[in-house]
Amino acid sequence: MNDSIINKQRQQIEYLLNTPPAANYDDKMLSHWAKYVCVLTSGYIENAISHYISEFSRKKAHPYITNYVTNSLDDFMNPKMEKILKLIGSFDKKWKEDIEDYVEKEGRKDAIDSIVANRNQIAHGEYVGLSLAPMINYYKKASEVLEFIKIQIQKQMSKD
Cα dist. 115→5, 40, 81, 90 in Å? Predict the structure, then answer.
């Protein structure tokens, strides 16, 4: 898979998480930093899932089907785990079950759902009491999920 765009997004987020904010940032400014990372991470999740599914379709399906899948993914937004699992389950029930089992462990599902819920509140100007420490944890869990999904898709792509 050519993941260059996805990798750039991941690198941008990790740069922000690994680069300490200015020493004079107060808690309010650090919260805004965390909110910015949250919005970027939500977009990263959307784009990564769409990219992985599109690549799977390109490799395994007729071009007409690939066009349909790719165009359908244009509307793939606010990817809470239920929505991600529904999308994946539309391709393969077993694939969905394996991913579902994985995300239920170690707070991975909750992390993705929290990222998306916080992103929606941020985007609509609502109060979000998000700090950097939980956001770092959410990001790590979301990255684990995306890597697991990517590996599952690559396994499916290598079949046949």
Answer: 20, 10, 11, 24
Residue 7 lies in a domain: no
**How do the residues of the chain divide into helix, strand and coil, expressed in percent and rounded to 5?**
80, 0, 20
Cα–Cα distance between 70 and 137 in angstroms, integer?
31
Work out how many domains the chain is built from and give that number: 1
pLDDT digit string, tens, across residues 18-66: 987 777 788 888 899 999 999 999 999 999 999 999 999 999 999 999 9
pLDDT value of residue 160:
62
Residue at 14 is within a domain: no
Which helix (DSSP H) or strand (DSSP E) does residue 158 occupy?
A: helix 132-158
Neighbours of 130 (CB within 10 A): 23
